[in-house]
Design a protein that fits this description.
Belongs to the YkuD family. Helix content is 16%, strand content 30%. With 230 residues, it is α+β, with helices and mostly antiparallel strands. It has one domain (10-223): L,D-transpeptidase catalytic domain-like. The longest helix has 21 residues, at 10-30.
Amino acid sequence: MTELMTVTRPLAWTRIRRILLSRLVLALVAIAPLAACQTRPAQLAQDDDAAWYIGAKPDKPFDIPLVDTGRLDPKYRRQQVSYNGPEQPGTILVDIDKRQLMLVQADGTAMQYGVGVGKAGFSWKGEARVGRKGVWPDWSPTATMVSLNPDLPRTRKGGLDNPLGARALYLYQGNRDILFRIHGTNEPWSIGEQMSSGCVRMLNEDIADLYERVPVGTRVLVKRSGKYRA
């Protein structure tokens, strides 16, 4: 499991945590108007956003906020599970209905992660590949998003307030970017929910883990209603 950044002095840790969590709360407020891969229904807004965070993992150029996974349903926590399906090791499998992503391993197991998925009418299914990868990636709205909301910013630099989070895997079919991503999120309570604009979102610490495990070219299968294809 991901290791926490160690802080030996309780007072120093309290001060660092207060600064970190204050930054996160301000960042969450700042991104509220954005509508790309990130939608925050009022009923899911938390009374205490900062309570979700317990520390940080050193990363560049920003540390990765770590979530209290005890707040998640156990089935959405990162874990190694048995796998006896037909897909080859190294394949990413996303089950929209179960809100889970698996990376098939070579030893009859899979790494399983909880995910948030697209709201009704936005979820995509099919086969793709990881066409490129990004670390603290910049965000840009699609043409459709701009047509629906012309006031959207045309780009947003990577960071704690970015809807794509700490990492992103960009899905391609052939040489075409299909505009769906597997990416981090700064809304950890959305894991297990159906509320994005179609992308697959993961805890920042989980997408960072997956990012290190998969190369560009990795096969991705996204299943909905028990099928990868219509």
